[in-house]
Amino acid sequence: MKITVIGAGYVGLVTATCLADLGNNVLCVEKSSFNLEELNLGMSPICEPDLNEMLHTNLDEGKMRFTNDMDEAIDFSDVIFVCVGTPQGNSGKADLSQIEEVSRQIAKRMNDYKLIIEKSTVPVNTHKLIKRTVKRYARKDLDFDVASNPEFLREGYAVYDFMNPNRIVIGIESERAGKIFREIYKPFTEKGTKLFITKTPAAEIIKYASNSFLAIKISYINMLADLCEKADIDVNMVADGIGADKRIGRDFLNAGIGYGGSCLPKDIRAFINIAEDYGLDFELLRAAEKINKDRRKKFLDKVEELLWILKDKNITVWGLAFKPDTNDIRDAPSIDIINGIMGAGAKLRLYDPEAAENFKKLFPENDFITYYEDKYEALKNSDALIIITEWNEFREVDLDRIKKLMILPIIIDGRNIYEPALMESKGFEYYSVGR
């Protein structure tokens, strides 16, 4: 099947590459000439396991290519996935200007039936605005459908999640659109994946509702972590007990310094705003958001309490990305934590296997910040090690070597990646969250 994907950002690039890998002929739109050249050479701008290899393979086999010609892209296919950005404004509302622009461009160019698919995360009933825009700007009275097919891609697992979905949500208003979706996702349904078919506005809500529920779950275990720490209980034991209940599950019950990234923070704020537009107060989501914001300040307070005076101390930080296996630093806890430590006068030695270049754009090297390409090199003569991101390479380290490199064997772990008993036996002052 021929498929057009508009937008080669995080969602668009993964969607286009995976659809090509399923055997489709995919044309993906990228506005930036610089990025376009790199993409056609198989160079992915995002760090995501398996994406580069899959991108190279499908480009070499001629199953996908990139263009900045919107007319060509709209003519190419009757199936158009819209994967443009919906950034959040100061009010909390999603900025839908790119959605509107794409809708106008499709309307002006279309000469036959089009299935316009919302892949971007959009507020409920955005499909009605797209339909109205297409009808206004279309040069002919042509048949078209607007459908919702929200993505559920975790950064660091995006390719895996796309190729191994536990369900595929689609919101449609015609059998014609449903038939097209069944053809696109046939490779998955043949393996038993459920195609969850609903009305378009319900699909739009499902995306926000899912992410907001996960945010609540994270905030809940972090709330319990504060109680566990004061009551001298290991929060991991509590999380294991809660997660053993099949109605709840263990995923997203890891205590730490809270969530970040481009999805959960943005989506929970947007969902609160959507509720307000309908005269509702999603107080539960406000509480979850506040708990998450407070995690960063509480962790900073812990650092200051344990190290007393931060001024002129050499502090190593491992992990800058908001989560492992990505170079994404959007709304990362590291930003607030490093701002606070640097503001107290400490000298920071930073290491992250993927996100350092992006972090340098916010925090260039100066008298207080130095970046390292080796995690052990960053530890030399440090007064403390702070762990912010739970990269697997941090779990598999030489603890004896770490101890020899540091002035003081102090580790403040924001992600609970080590066992306290082991660290104590190795002679570390080890502090974690909720334990």
From TrEMBL:
Residues in UDP-glucose/GDP-mannose dehydrogenase C-terminal domain copies: 316-420
Binding site for NAD(+): T86, T121, E155, K266, R330
Keywords (A to Z) from UniProt: NAD, Oxidoreductase
Enzyme Commission code(s) on record: 1.1.1.22
Protein name in the entry: UDP-glucose 6-dehydrogenase
Similarity field: Belongs to the UDP-glucose/GDP-mannose dehydrogenase family.
Taxonomic lineage: Archaea, Methanobacteriati, Methanobacteriota, Methanomada group, Methanobacteria
GO MF terms held by the record: NAD binding; UDP-glucose 6-dehydrogenase activity
One Gene Ontology term from the biological process aspect of the record: polysaccharide biosynthetic process
Coiled coil (residue ranges): none
InterPro entries: 6-PGluconate_DH-like_C_sf (IPR008927), NAD(P)-bd_dom_sf (IPR036291), UDP-Glc/GDP-Man (IPR017476), UDP-Glc/GDP-Man_DH_C (IPR014027), UDP-Glc/GDP-Man_DH_C_sf (IPR036220), UDP-Glc/GDP-Man_DH_dimer (IPR014026), UDP-Glc/GDP-Man_DH_N (IPR001732), UDPglc_DH_bac (IPR028357)
Protein's pathway: Nucleotide-sugar biosynthesis; UDP-alpha-D-glucuronate biosynthesis; UDP-alpha-D-glucuronate from UDP-alpha-D-glucose: step 1/1
Active-site residues, record numbering mapped to chain: C263
Binding residues annotated for substrate, in chain numbering: F152, L153, R154, E155, K207, F252, L253, N254, A255, G256, G260, K323
Superkingdom, taxonomy of origin: Archaea
